[in-house]
């Protein structure tokens, strides 16, 4: 009986996904089509990339609320590199990734060495990077990107597979391999599960925590570059609120907000659940404001269930 309960809990996100798809397929005539499912994958590609980075931080016992506005900063900075400074796309994108890593390192260093609560540190950093995105652009979008950069967000492979979806899938696979198959991945779990025990076992807890934030910053930068390519401009308002979408995808997928538990595969399920839910509600005519209410409700319910489960274990 115990094993059955554990299996049901582990597969809950996939059962939820099947249930949502079935309900929308019955209620909405044109929902269950290959074209719409491809649209869903395109819509969640940026969230999926962000959610992988958030997974690393959550498993290590932290949280990062700056990644949404980091998309805007990296997007406008990379756009300026490619337009105003006429850099080659590879170099411009590389510098954009460096910005994400730098912001992630700053988050990790402050959280680790000042013992500042991650929520406060990354919330403050969110305002910093948002302000910087407006300062360097004077609040205006950056247009005139080279045509070659559009392939990342708008291109297709074999005319029907979006390149942005392939980027997301590649990052998910790589993230899962690091977490499940490497010594570093096990250190993230150990740190999130019990920091003192991890320290006594010889793990460099400070270094591991900083690395988790650096990875999160890197993937936020990747998402920012893909977003810039998709909308063919650098927008200082892009990415706002996407950190919460990534967080919801993680917790719905079974990654504990308390740290030390969860799998990247579960995050995939959570991301798809939220993507299908948002797409189905939009196609069904629900307003964007009501969709926000639904997302918030889902987050509250899932975190409440996680907390109750932990209390029962204790």
Give an overview in words.
This protein is mainly alpha-helical. 76% of the residues lie in helices and 1% in strands. The protein has helices at 2-10, 12-27, 34-59, 67-83, 89-114, 118-137, 151-154, 163-181, 183-193, 195-200, 205-231, 242-252, 264-283, 288-313; strands at residues 156-157, 161-162. A two-stranded antiparallel sheet has the order 1-2. A hairpin with a 3-residue loop joins strand 1 (156-157) and strand 2. Helix 3 (34-59) crosses helix 9 (183-193), helix 3 (34-59) crosses helix 12 (242-252) and helix 12 (242-252) packs across helix 14. It is globular and about 55 Å long.
Quick tags:
314 residues; mainly alpha; two-stranded antiparallel sheet; 2 strands; 76% helix; 1% strand; globular
